Amino acid sequence: MTRPAPAGWPRVGTVPALLAAAVLLVGGLVSASLLLTGGPNETAQGVYVGETSLAYWQWGSSDYRLLPAGLPPVSTSAGTPTVLSATAGATLYRIGAATAGNLSVEWNFTLTSAAPGSTEIEVAVTGGGGGASICAPFYVETPAGPPRGPVTDAVYLDLGPAATNAVVLATLSETSRVCTSIGTCP
C-alpha cells in the first residue's frame, strides 16, 4: 500500500525530474559560456567620415601589426620628401625611429599611373593602440615619370611595445594633401 505524500510535499517522481532539469539548465549555461569558436578576422569601422582621396594616391587599408625589422624611414621633412618608386610592386617604410617587434599601425597606399610627376604629398596619419594617439606627418614625392602599374607603399607607425595580453584599438585616421611645390606644403 502506497502512502500519499504529506500536504505541501511534491510527489516522489517530481523531485528527480526537477533535479534533472536543474542539472541540464546549469550544465547548458556553463557549457554555453565556455564555448569558443574561431572565425574570420574581424574588421571594424567607427563613425563614418566622408573621404575625399587624391585620385592617384589612395589609402587602401590599415592594420595593426608587429613592426618588421630593417625598414627605411620615410621623410618627415617637407623640403626633402621620399621619392616613391615608379616600379609596380610594394615598398615598405617606417615613420621616425622604430623598434622591430613593437606594435605598429600599417597604412597601405596605392599610387596609380595617373600620378603627376614630381609632386609632393603631405600625409598625416594618426594611430592609437590603447595609449595616447600619435599623429605623424610624412612627405612623399611622386616619381618624375608615370608609375608603371599600381605601386603599393606601406608605411608603419611604431606605437610602442606590444601588449602581452590584449590590444585596445583606439583610433586611425589619414589625411593627404598636395603641396603647391616641393617644400611648400599646406
Question: What is the C-alpha radius of gyration, as a whole number of Å?
Answer: 29 Å
> What is the share of helical residues?
10-25%
* Percent of sequence in beta strands: 35-45%
DSSP strand tally: 9
Given as residue ranges, the uncertain stretches (5+ residues, pLDDT < 50) are: 28-39, 45-50
Number of DSSP helical runs: 1
What's the story with the biggest beta sheet?
A: 5 strands, mixed
Walk across the major sheet and give the strand order. Answer: 1-5-8-4-2
The averaged pLDDT comes out at 77
Oligomer: single chain
Structural class: mainly beta
Can you describe this structure?
- There is one protein chain.
- With 186 residues, this protein is mostly beta strands.
- It has a domain at 57-178.
- Residues 28-39 and 45-50 have low confidence and may be disordered.
- The strands form two sheets. A five-stranded mixed beta sheet has the order 1-5-8-4-2, with no helix packed on it. The protein has a four-stranded mixed beta sheet with strand order 3-7-6-9, with no helix packed on it.
- It has one helix and nine strands.
